[in-house]
Amino acid sequence: MNWNQLISAKRFGMEEFHEERQENRSEFQRDYDRLIFSAPFRRLQNKTQVFPLPGSVFVHNRLTHSLEVSCVGRSLGNDVAKAILQRQPELQESFLPEIGSIVSAACLAHDLGNPPFGHSGERAISTFFSEGKGLRLKEKQPDGEQLSAMEWEDLTHFEGNANAFRILTHQFEGRRKGGFVLTYTTLASIVKYPFSSSLAGKKSKFGFFVSEEDSFHKIATELGLTLLNEHPLKYARHPLVYLVEAADDICYQMMDIEDAHKLKILTTEETKELLMAYFDEKRQEHLRKTFRIVNDTNEQIAYLRSSVIGLLIRECTRVFLEHEQEILSGTFEGTLVKHISERPAGAYKHCSEVSLKKIYRSRDVLDIELAGFRVISTLLDLMVDAVTSPEKAYSELLINRVSNQYNIKAPVLYERIQAVLDYISGMTDVFALDLYRKINGNSLPAV
To answer: Measured between alpha carbons, how far is residue 301 from residues 62, 255, 315, 447 in Å?
Structure first.
């Protein structure tokens, strides 16, 4: 793979109208702005990141997380671009200087496909089909319709990353061709797992549904991504995916710990110890001197967190540049974070272990996951029944409630189920809970 081909300003869905615009914004900055002002991005403000959405303490939601990841991604992209241009000044006239803008935009979009209630929403959708009432759809239906093996894999391995790619590229009813009509490079930069669901395995990670396979193939071919397997389709990652992934890894690790401190799940001393461990003795002493000047506890933790983020940005930039040729050849394995220096790597691993034990398994987090699982499963059960048995009176009521942008009456079973998943995964936590209560008769519209 080569940088000249990897970075393209061509827009998906508008190829025949592609032209260079004479304005101060680059095409990739336009991607960023287009995402910021979009409804799916705005809805992230009411989607759970890890902790239940705010009571008296405002913790991160999907929106604030995405904005922070975007900031870190921009820094990573700018630092990598600067270093590559020093090595290869002939790339100055290419789009390579725009890497920071591209990664920043891709980071904004990386969580657009996540359903309500965090990762429990993804699991609820997958297990509805693999273990729940959705299992009946694996067999031939009374009307003779049957899902293909790959379509079934899409449902039982439902993945937010693949759903984000669908949201960005799919032409919903009444909308324009090409979805968000983003540049090819921004779209390729969000696909962490550039292969189909049939290659997902037990980890349930893949990059595109059957319905978007041709779209990804078109993008990958245009950008010169290395084809690893034709049937099922599998490509090497676009190099910028590693920077988007690193920004996400850095932010969720650091911000979950800071939120846990605010919620008193972790004590101040525990939090300081976790974050101090990233630094050598000399740097730790400098941080302690700062603490004698700044004695507000929350400011101390915020300063420590920002220092760690800065360190991890430098480390991930170094790893990317040292392994640039492996990344371009499609042979690099693992994430950038897994290749950082020994001290920060050990501290990062310890933070992950503490997060799993004290944060992700805390009662508040488990409660929201349990509730979310129930809400999503119930909505899926009713909506899937409605699109497979539309002749029922109750089915008609449910179908009429769905926005016209979702092709809920499509002639093909797989498309109808996808429309249901588009509808439910696009909901905010509050909307999903409100609909769940109304459907169950626990809440009625105000008279």
So the answer is: 22, 11, 21, 49
Q: What is the pLDDT along the chain (447 residues), one digit of tens a residue?
A: 999 999 999 999 876 555 555 556 789 999 999 999 999 999 998 887 654 444 544 567 889 899 999 999 999 999 999 999 999 999 999 999 999 999 999 999 999 999 998 788 888 999 999 998 999 999 888 888 889 999 999 999 999 999 999 999 998 888 888 889 999 999 999 999 999 887 877 666 899 999 999 999 999 999 999 999 888 889 999 999 999 999 999 998 898 888 888 888 889 999 999 999 999 999 999 999 988 898 889 899 999 999 999 999 999 999 999 999 999 999 999 999 999 999 999 999 999 999 888 877 777 777 778 888 899 999 999 999 999 988 888 889 899 989 889 999 999 999 999 999 999 999 998 899 899 998 887 766 655
Task: Find residue 235's DSSP bridge partners.
Answer: 227
Tracing tokens 């914004």 back to the chain, one arrives at: 25
Half-sphere exposure of 114 (CA within 13 A, CB side): 25
Q: How far is CA 154 from CA 129, 159, 160, 270, 406, in A?
A: 10, 8, 11, 41, 18
Residue owning tokens 């909901």? 427
